[in-house]
Design brief:
With 225 residues, the chain is an alpha+beta fold. The chain has one domain. Helices cover 31% and strands 22% of the residues. It contains four helices and six strands. It has a six-stranded antiparallel sheet, sandwiched between helices. A hairpin with a 2-residue loop joins strand 5 and strand 6. Helix 1 crosses helix 2. The protein is globular.
Length: 225
């Protein structure tokens, strides 16, 4: 099958399943109270040139972050003193995980790692999900550790990496890294960046950066995909 046909098939699957997924998740997601809606998390048009697909992805990711009780980094851009970075791992068949680093004015930082009892993937939905946080851990970084994180972000070219890629798949996982600093917001979104044949070479730095954030949060994912 040619690359064009593969991409077309993957795009068909995404378009077909996302509306179903959003509808199926709406009832259980209503249990999670949050002052934010899915539209508050991302700038319009960041995920796809198609308004329909862009809204679908933003709703999917936003609902997941709301279920994780995570703040909107996009809204934090209005605070010129805010410096926050977050990795969201959103798999098709496992529970989502987020790791958020907030850098304080004194140069130290705090890391919050969360996971929720909620199958937020594209193809699965378990009606027994409680919506409760399964992981909600916080640890502190000193100034030296924070500088190491900032070096990683620079060495892995986070701020200059393009927000999205054309690679899509029927399962796998979405990897989403966000950052806000000095009023500037940036996002990098990849589907299973370590998958063979999925431009793994060009996505290597991004994947390593995401794995670094999982380590910061003390999160051990045995089957990261």
């Amino acid at each position: 099958m040619s690359d064009k046909l593969k991409f077309g098939f993957a795009l068909f699957l995404v378009v077909s399943f996302i509306p179903f997924m959003v509808h199926a998740q709406s009832q259980s997601q209503a249990k999670a109270s949050s002052p934010l809606t899915s539209g508050d998390y991302f700038p319009v048009g960041i995920f796809n040139e198609s308004p329909q697909l862009d809204r679908s992805f933003a709703s999917w990711y936003g609902r997941t972050l709301a279920a994780l009780s995570e703040p909107s980094l996009f809204e934090l851009r209005t605070d010129m003193t805010a410096q926050v970075y977050r990795f969201l791992w959103l798999p098709s068949f496992h529970r989502p995980i987020s790791v958020r680093l907030t850098i304080r004015p004194d140069g130290s930082g705090s890391v919050v790692a969360r996971s929720v009892d909620y199958h937020a993937g594209l193809l699965t939905k378990d009606q027994k999900d409680s919506g409760k946080l399964l992981l909600d851990a916080t640890n502190t970084l000193n100034e030296v550790q924070v500088r190491e994180v900032l070096n990683q972000l620079q060495d892995r070219n986070f701020w200059s990496t393009t927000p999205r890629d054309v690679s899509l798949g029927a399962d796998g996982a979405e990897w989403l890294m966000e950052g806000v600093n000095g009023g500037k917001y940036h996002l990098v979104n990849r589907w299973s960046p370590e998958s063979p044949g999925n431009r793994a070479g060009s996505n290597r730095d991004f994947a390593l950066l995401c794995r670094y954030f999982l380590k910061l949060g003390g999160v051990d994912v045995k089957d990261l995909y």
